Amino acid sequence: MSYSDDTVRLLEAAGATEGSMVVLETGGRSYRGRLMPHHEFSGPDIVILKMKSGYNVGIKVDSGSKLKVEESPAEPAHREADVEPKKGLPTISLIGTGGTIASYVDYRTGAVHPALSTSDMVNAVPEIRDIANIRAKVLFSIFSENMGPEHWKGMAECIRDEIASGADAVIIPHGTDTMGYTAAALSFMLQGISKPVVLVGAQRSSDRPSSDASTNLMACARFCTEAKKAGVFVIMHDTSGDDSFAVHLGTRVRKMHTSRRDAFRSINATPVAHIDAKGKIDMLSDARDVSDEPVIARTDMEDGVLLLQYFPGMDPETFRPLIMGSKGVVFAGSGLGHVNSSFVPMLREACAKGVVVAMTSQCLNGRVNMNVYDTGRDLLAAGVVPLLDMLPETAYIKLRWVLANTSSPEEGRTMMATPLAGEMGDRREF
Amino acid sequence: MSYSDDTVRLLEAAGATEGSMVVLETGGRSYRGRLMPHHEFSGPDIVILKMKSGYNVGIKVDSGSKLKVEESPAEPAHREADVEPKKGLPTISLIGTGGTIASYVDYRTGAVHPALSTSDMVNAVPEIRDIANIRAKVLFSIFSENMGPEHWKGMAECIRDEIASGADAVIIPHGTDTMGYTAAALSFMLQGISKPVVLVGAQRSSDRPSSDASTNLMACARFCTEAKKAGVFVIMHDTSGDDSFAVHLGTRVRKMHTSRRDAFRSINATPVAHIDAKGKIDMLSDARDVSDEPVIARTDMEDGVLLLQYFPGMDPETFRPLIMGSKGVVFAGSGLGHVNSSFVPMLREACAKGVVVAMTSQCLNGRVNMNVYDTGRDLLAAGVVPLLDMLPETAYIKLRWVLANTSSPEEGRTMMATPLAGEMGDRREF
Predict the structure, then answer these.
(1) Does A165 lie at the interface with B, CB-CB under 8 angstroms?
(2) How far is A367 from chain B (nearest CA, A)?
(3) Of A312, A368, A400, which has the smallest distance from its Cβ to B147's Cβ?
(4) d(CA A382, CA A392)
(5) Given a cut of 50, is residue A84 above it in pLDDT?
(6) Which contiguous run of DSSP H or E holds residue B320?
(7) Under DSSP, is residue A309 helix (H, G, I), strand (E, B) or coil?
(8) Does B186 reach chain A within 8 Å, measured CB to CB?
(9) Of A24, A223, B25, B199, which one's alpha carbon is 20 to 30 angstroms from that of A81?
(10) By the 8 A CB rule, do A72 and A89 touch?
């Protein structure tokens, strides 16, 4: 939907273009703000202004409305092309994959550009160049709900190559929807990685007031250059404010809110570190020190692995073809790790056939313990592998990776029950 | 596994039986506690004592161990049979269904009885008889992972009958694993119910120190007799201590920890009320007043409804037979309500065929908003119903109920998007 003819006339008569600072008088009120691009969902007579507060307000105009331009849009910022590397600074490779964080706002005009250039991202946070030389590239430009195994493989190989060619750290801006799954996938593919690999997203698109894109990115750069810790991490806001960031281990993090800036939470683990507004890093739990070991990327992922949440009334016969036809199934069972006992015979059959069936809890917090009640014991006897405090999503990723890297279901079961990347069991806290 | 012959001899020589207070000297240490029943998972030479702290300790005995009985087990408590109702007190119907809360501990001997008599439960909390006349019955005695639609139907009919025959409130002790699902089912089956219906469980089995079974039950009785609020609620501990309880709305509650006593949390809603250690009730959000309206139980539930969590790498073709063969599907999508865009054509086909497809978020917290990104808009255009802030589990239950109570998929979609039992949208807070 575009502007109505009347609205176009109102804007043109005043000489208002996107980014103009305008005063709009309508319905007995006066509004002052920057003219924002027309939104495809706003009505034909709605003009959107970015107010001084930073909020965008949609205002209905009519034949009585008056518009005056106070200030023309600022010229677009100079975009640096290639920046000369500074001697003595560490090198961070920034690998763009898409998502909200990759949308670009011109802060002078308020206009949003869906530009996905990672250079643009760096230019929005110029102070990042004071602490690191940035090598920026775009690997993908996709919404994170469309991420899958082929993208994880691409990222892992790109990270390996960037580190092999001298990067001291890698930052991957990523859509938040599936960032937890990608973090887990990279954690298994890049086990024992010797440098920091940080996934980062934004919960607020860059046209919203105080978008978290820039602050999150700067926190990543600080952690990458100062903490000297190796591993796959997710860094996002720790509170709904601007002044606090959490560093999560890639196998322990889950998106726990659709929209809050502090949506990402470490589950069953203390975050690896906390970063305050001044960039001060507090280590909270165990992480390996950086080293110069070469990076090995084992990127194979088995197909035919399922993640299923148990629910009352779930019919074993309905799910039989899927489960019997799969290589492996992770259940998010109820409570301590249960499913309806009517599933036991079929799961026994599946395990005997070589399907690896593993159990996590849909409670998310706490540990699976299948020794407490009869159903749990029956499932254990059937061959179901209990996964302690592993997240269902991490377990699904791990099972795909394990089955691609083992030669028998028995070996697969053993590896599922063995911590490989901090994904299960107690972690050392400081 | 049972005791070894040597251990049996040690116990018999001392005259120790279950519940005896004993002093055991072994390995240079001395232990004093009540002899607990032998656990099937403890070794043949392990003796379990309940210490003064309340904790059970397993102690390995050998040929050098010495055992002395200090005190014989106490006589079992007198179990009251029928208690004469007291005039002027409200009547609470207690309907047992099984679960941890229904396991009985004899506090004098420390022995655990898997007795499921609701009278036993009441007798463990004698002060409950000071505030209400209790009518206790056992409806089922099953683990909650085995609960399903037939049990929800049985409970709803029993509640209706109990209230019709004079009960002022109903308390349902229930296993915690699927208590949230049952609470949602009863909320839709008993819409507009005029009395309090409270589900309650225990996270610690009664043989553990300070089991929450009794304290939870007493909090329920207080809420039922004092708050004068109608609806389906879950009452459990609000903290890991003993002194605080939360009253949750049946459609907004989820088990969020495998073992903590405060595992049940209201999601996207303030709890209905808080109850402190002294039984003081603070109303925190909206609930209807009790009345004498008759209870209508609409207990039909459609079969062939699925709850599916989206995960990266989920293959639409693998799930096609299930989805196309179903009456309805609730997705726990990623983020604001997304699945991989490769699902769009199949979901469009399913919707056109009359399958009701609804979207919630696996983030659990926050609202689905499918207008923000392309994939969401494509899903809306395909006919997928966005469910705002409804829990995936509640949405699954609601969809089963809605499809059994509507005559067309279109009507079903409309009802899914309409709040029926406080399950979606903002609730009034006090």
Answers:
(1) no
(2) 6
(3) A312
(4) 20
(5) yes
(6) helix B316-324
(7) strand
(8) no
(9) A223
(10) no
**Segment A373-396, tens digit of pLDDT:** 788 899 999 999 999 999 999 999
Q: Which pLDDT does position A205 carry in this prediction?
A: 59
Q: Write the pLDDT tens digit of every residue in B67-80.
A: 999 988 765 444 44
Residue-wise pLDDT tens digits, B283-313: 999 999 999 999 999 999 999 999 999 999 9
Q: How far is CA B84 from the centre of its chain?
A: 30
In percent, the amount of chain B with pLDDT more than 90 equals: 66
A414 catalytic, yes or no?
A: no
The HSE-up count of residue B387 (CA atoms within 13 Å, CB side) is 33
Q: Would you call B316 an interface residue with chain A, using a CB distance cutoff of 8 Å?
A: no
Strand partners, B360: B332
Q: Can you name the residues that pair with A309 across neighbouring β-strands?
A: A332
Q: Does A393 touch chain B (CB under 8 A)?
A: yes
Q: Give contacts of A 256-295 with B, CB under 8 A.
A: 256-260, 263
Strands B46-50 and B29-35: antiparallel
Helix (H, G, I), strand (E, B) or coil at A26: strand
- Residue type present at position A220: C
Mean per-residue pLDDT, A393-418: 97
Can you tell me the ipTM of this complex? 0.82
pLDDT, mean of residues A255-271: 95
Which one is predicted more confidently, A75 or B347? B347
What are residue A388's phi and psi, to 5 degrees?
Answer: 50, -120
Cross-chain Cβ contact A258/B373 below 8 Å = no
pLDDT > 80? residue B39: no
Helix (H, G, I), strand (E, B) or coil at B30: strand
Q: How far is CA B11 from CA B62, B155, B207, in A?
A: 12, 45, 21
The pLDDT of residue A413 is: 98
Exposed / middle / buried, residue A248 (Cβ in 10 Å: 0-12, 13-18, 19+): buried
Whether residue B197 contacts residue B172, with contact meaning beta carbons closer than 8 Å, is answered with yes
For chain B, say whether A366 makes contact (Cβ under 8 Å): yes
Task: Tell me the shortest Cα–Cα distance from A364 to chain B, in angstroms.
Answer: 6
B143 touches chain A (CB under 8 A): yes
Beta-bridge mates of residue B112: B105
Q: How far is CA A101 from the centre of its chain?
A: 10
Question: Which residues pair with residue A104 across a beta bridge?
Answer: A113
A223-254 pLDDT, tens digit per residue, is 999 999 999 999 999 988 777 999 999 999 99
> What mean pLDDT do residues B154-174 have?
96
Give the one of A255, A319, A400 whose C-beta lies nearest to B363's C-beta.
A255
Any B CB within 8 A of A427 CB: no
pTM confidence score: 0.82
Which A residues 22-81 touch B at CB under 8 Å?
Answer: 41
| CB spacing of A145 vs B338 below 8 angstroms | yes
Backbone angles phi and psi of A323, in degrees to 5:
-70, -45
Residue A98 pLDDT > 60? yes
pLDDT of residue A347: 98
pLDDT (0 to 100) of residue B126: 80
Return the closest-CA partner of residue A323 out of B321, B140, B216, B20: B321
Active site residue A255: yes
Active site residue A280: no
Residue A258 annotated to the active site: no
* Partner B, chain A 195-214, Cβ-Cβ below 8 Å: 205
The 10s digit of each residue's pLDDT in A175-220 is 899 999 999 999 999 998 999 999 998 776 555 555 677 788 899 9
How far apart CA A181 and CA B127 sit, in angstroms, is 51
Torsion angles phi and psi, residue B60, rounded to 5: -80, 130
The minimum CA-CA distance between B27 and chain A, rounded to whole Å, is 28
Cross-chain residue pair B371–A41, CB shorter than 8 Å: yes
Please name the residue of chain A whose CA is at the shortest distance from the CA of residue B311: A307
Range ranked top by mean pLDDT from A230-244, A325-339, B49-63? A325-339
